[in-house]
Design brief:
heterodimer, A: alpha/beta, five-stranded parallel sheet, four-stranded parallel sheet, about 30% helix, B: mainly alpha
Chain lengths: ~425, ~100
């Protein structure tokens, strides 16, 4: 069997079978005879990818062909998903359809999974069988959990005994159900990996959400935070004050607890140095790296974990015309792995792609901003914010000195803002 | 508008007015995460829409946030990240957007 690329006709048939238009065919053939319209393939419909797809259409004044490949039927937000675990929001509250991207913005949304990217040939292969040629590819693959870094965790997770709930979705609700089923007087343990990991404050927010629920429903229950890091990695002073003021005797924080093995049947966690811990509900977050497709494509060249890009256009340092976004990136100084940051990166990448396809120079001075709210109970939130400017000498983003900051304390006013932030950014990505 | 062609020449040195317009859209897009795409905010959020706000009004507000004279939760912290020239560019962009 020849390994040669499928013929143009073969691709047409494959794509037709997958419901794709003939206008999407070509790959190398298309590049030899330039099409009238450039094609951008966006892989992954999270905060980065969905935003990129919409803004590629907006910034090109609807002149680019933009296809978004995403296996899920609907978008489910990681930010705000801890509120489902705490019980103040439902899955429906954090779920949004992809329909408007097609209907209002002309993005071709295809429900499929990219299994392989041929970066040299400028083609992507879908699980459904189609091969799609591209001029530019935007990859926003999210993170992969490195199950094998914690002995026994892969099996415990597969059996449903130890959940992650770090990809929002079915596990978010499943973890909520485990907390509901836990007896009063039980212990919920959350194990945090060494930074960097997706969404630095989220494990501490989750601890607050579980405790907020326990305070109402199971006042003798406990929350144990077992953190591989030396200190709370985000909003540390604010979280510690909340734990002392609102959850004294309920939340216990233990730094330098690096989980290395689990015994799900006994409900026991083993640590690199510290003594074993037993708990009734275990939420173990293993170390993380760039999403599997990025790793498989050879883009995760920083410690074999994260993707390196040219920050001016978010183009991979190892694959031409592949622009990488979001949590899969090796971050710049003081840049969080957050949904808001991915949304902002997507806009910089979309503008750069439009400029490059038109033969214009890219913006030499792009900016990124981040605002992240954490809810400490059902109604009170606190934020951390930062602004990042591209530094041409260091060729990276640096936080603007004097800008950014934290809330003075969590409050209900910011709780309203936090929920409005979520609905607004979902609109900005999807509506 | 003509569709972009991949046969376009490699990046030229000087940015055209069209390119500058794209950069301004990209700069303003950071605000859209909360204030809505092109400054058209949801009708049910506490903060206002930016689209169609007179440039002088928005520039003055952003400078007041930056100076710390206008109260806020997060806007003082964000406004301090932008230069006066960027604030003027943002104000001009949003003033030109349809409400």
């Amino acid at each position: 069997m020849s390994m040669a690329a499928p013929s143009r006709e073969r691709r047409r048939l494959l794509a037709a079978a997958a419901g794709l238009s003939a206008g999407w065919l070509g790959g190398c053939a298309g590049r030899a005879a330039p099409p009238s319209t450039a094609r951008v393939l966006v892989v992954g419909g999270g905060y980065g990818g969905a935003t990129a797809a919409k803004y590629l259409r907006l910034f090109s004044r609807q002149s680019l062909d933009v296809m978004l490949i995403e296996p899920r039927q609907s978008f489910v937000s990681c930010p705000a998903s801890n509120l489902v675990i705490g019980g103040s929001r439902t899955m429906a509250d954090i779920t949004r359809p992809y329909d408007d991207l097609g209907r209002r913005h002309g993005v071709r949304v295809v429900r499929d999974t990219v299994t392989r990217i041929d970066t040299a040939g400028h083609e992507a292969v879908l699980a459904g069988g189609a091969t799609i040629g591209y001029d530019k590819l935007v990859l926003s693959p999210g993170i992969e959990l490195m199950w094998d870094e914690v002995e026994g965790l892969r099996e415990a997770h597969a059996a449903g005994r130890i959940l992650q709930a770090w990809h929002a979705g079915a596990e978010t609700l499943a973890l909520r159900r485990q907390l509901e089923a836990m007896p009063d007087g039980g212990v919920f343990a959350i194990a945090i990996p060494e930074a960097p990991y997706r969404c630095p404050p989220a494990p501490y927010e989750r601890a607050c959400q579980a405790a907020s629920y326990f305070k109402r429903a199971k006042p003798r229950a406990k929350v144990l935070i077992l953190d591989a890091n030396q200190e709370v990695t985000s909003k540390g002073a604010l979280f510690r004050k909340v734990w002392a003021d609102d959850y004294a005797g309920m939340i216990e924080y233990r730094p330098q607890y690096q989980c290395v093995a689990v015994d799900a049947r006994a409900g026991v966690l083993h640590f690199e140095v510290q003594d074993d811990v037993r708990a009734d509900v275990l939420n173990v977050l293993p170390p993380m790296r760039a999403g599997a497709l990025a790793v498989r494509t050879g883009l995760a060249t920083a410690n074999d974990r994260w993707c390196l890009v040219d920050w001016l256009d978010l183009q991979s340092t190892v694959a031409r015309d592949v622009h990488v976004l979001g949590d899969s990136l090796q971050v710049a100084p003081a840049m969080p792995k957050s949904g808001h940051m991915a949304n902002n990166q997507a806009k910089v990448a979309a503008a750069a792609i439009v400029a490059q396809l038109r033969g214009w120079p890219v913006d030499p001075a792009p900016m990124l901003a981040n605002t992240c709210y954490s809810f400490v109970d059902a109604t009170r939130a606190m934020h951390v914010a930062s602004v990042h400017r591209y530094d041409p000498a260091q060729r990276t983003y640096l936080p603007v000195q004097g800008a950014g900051g934290l809330s003075a304390a969590p409050n209900e006013h910011e709780g309203v803002y936090g929920w409005n932030w979520a609905r607004s950014i979902w609109d900005d990505m999807l509506a | 508008m003509a569709a972009p062609s991949i046969a376009a020449p490699p990046a030229a040195a000087a940015a055209t007015p069209q390119a500058e317009d794209l950069y301004r859209q990209s700069l303003a897009a950071a605000c859209a995460s909360c204030h809505g795409t092109q400054g058209r905010a949801r009708g049910d959020v506490a903060w206002g829409a930016l689209a169609g706000m007179p440039a002088a009004v928005l520039a003055e507000r952003l400078r007041a946030f930056k100076a710390g004279t206008r109260p806020s939760t997060v806007m003082q912290q964000l406004a301090r990240g932008y230069s006066d020239a960027q604030i003027d560019a943002l104000a001009a962009y949003f003033a030109a957007q349809a409400k």
